[in-house]
Write a structure and sequence with these properties.
The chain is an alpha/beta fold and 368 residues long. The protein has twelve helices and eleven strands.
């Protein structure tokens, strides 16, 4: 097990709980009267949408959605330095183009009288790709923070040296998720193909050092462990490493597989650590009741680097793009257009009939 960067880095259970409470409080900090009212309208409309129409078994009463999204994921880039086997960025399998988000596009989306920041609470600067390949990533964060939003991202951490770590802390980002999928190089690189565990550990050290140096409580540093068959035995070791290194939180993520089957190297032996089980016929299927509803799709949306609006983070290749937003007004028009309303209706009528939904964790009891 790699040693922690500083003897004082190790966290007690109490200090980790305090850090997590502080992060939860930061998530609610953006709520003002307008954003709160919008969130309540979203929740009320979601409850109404789940009520069957009287006399029509299984039908849904789906009125046009009048509230705006609470959260938004925006993609800084589709480019990535690694070749992870179940990721379209890693496999270079996108049919859509690769590129970088222009800061002006994000500003136009969030700012002004029609800007989405008036109603948003949470901005996640991640969809596909490696965000810190974008040289202006800290500028993107600053745009979100200027609008008073909680801002997060997820990274493989291969582009974070000491200088960039200080810029990340100074950017004001609230949550930094670092993917660390093994306690040693062999286990880590079995999924993060082309990656180096030393780079991830160095980046963690740099960010934690920068927080201490600058006296900042944020970002909330999360180690995210993607558990697969090759590394599942290391889960206790990873929990101990997270405590010793002093990260704020350790989370486990289960793997999404396009074609689970007997002998698949990413399927775990422990059923609690995977999304799939055999059905009575012996096929591997997603462990999900597939209820005809989806809060994730209802309360948020995703934008690709070039402005395509897609309803869900499982639509990785933007096959269900609802339109292309140049600014906040354009997004609001798309959010309420007939195509988007029709897609919501299809989710509430027969979610299992939508291909991307059949591998979705919404409604499951596994770590997603």
């Amino acid at each position: 097990m790699p040693s922690a960067p500083h003897p004082q880095a190790a966290r007690t259970a109490l200090s980790r709980k305090w850090a997590q409470w502080r992060d939860r409080r930061a998530r609610f900090a953006p709520l003002n009267p307008r954003r709160t009212a919008n969130a309540l309208r979203l929740m009320q409309s979601f409850r109404r949408a789940q009520k069957p129409v009287q006399g029509e078994k299984g039908a849904r009463s789906l009125d046009p959605l009048q509230a705006w999204p609470m959260s938004l994921s925006v993609e800084p880039t589709t480019a990535c330095n690694l070749r992870c086997p179940e990721c379209p960025s890693g496999l270079r399998s996108f049919t859509r183009p690769t590129g970088m988000l222009e800061p002006d596009r994000l500003a136009a989306l969030l700012s002004g009288p029609q800007g989405l920041a008036r109603d948003l609470v949470y901005l996640n600067l991640y969809f596909q790709g490696e965000p810190y390949l974008h040289k202006g990533m800290d500028d993107l964060v600053a745009i979100g923070k200027r609008e008073g939003l909680y801002v997060s991202t997820s990274t493989n951490a291969h582009f974070i040296d000491a200088q960039r770590a200080e810029r990340i802390v100074e950017s004001g980002i609230d949550r930094l998720i670092i993917s660390i999928d093994g306690a040693d190089q062999e286990a880590y690189a079995s999924y993060r193909v082309g990656g180096k565990i030393e780079k991830v550990l160095d980046a963690t050290r740099h960010v934690l050092d920068a927080k201490r140096k600058l006296g900042r409580p944020h970002p909330h540093v999360v180690w995210q462990f993607l558990v697969v068959g090759i590394n599942e035995h290391q889960l206790p070791t990873m929990r101990a490493m997270a405590r010793q290194w002093g990260v704020d939180e350790f989370v486990v993520k289960t793997a999404q597989l396009d074609a689970p089957e007997d002998g698949h190297p990413l399927l775990t032996e422990d059923p609690r650590l995977r999304r799939y089980d055999r059905d009575p016929s012996g096929r591997w299927v997603l462990r999900n009741p597939m209820l005809d509803r989806c809060w994730r799709m209802w309360q948020g949306a995703v934008l690709t680097w070039d402005g395509k609006v897609v309803p869900c983070c499982f639509d990785k290749d933007a096959q269900h793009a609802m339109g292309q937003a140049q600014d906040g007004a354009g997004f609001r028009e798309i959010w309420q257009n007939p195509a988007y309303h029709s897609f919501r209706e299809s989710v509430f009528k027969h979610r299992a009939g939508i291909e991307m939904c059949r591998n979705c964790t919404e409604g499951t009891e596994v770590w997603a």
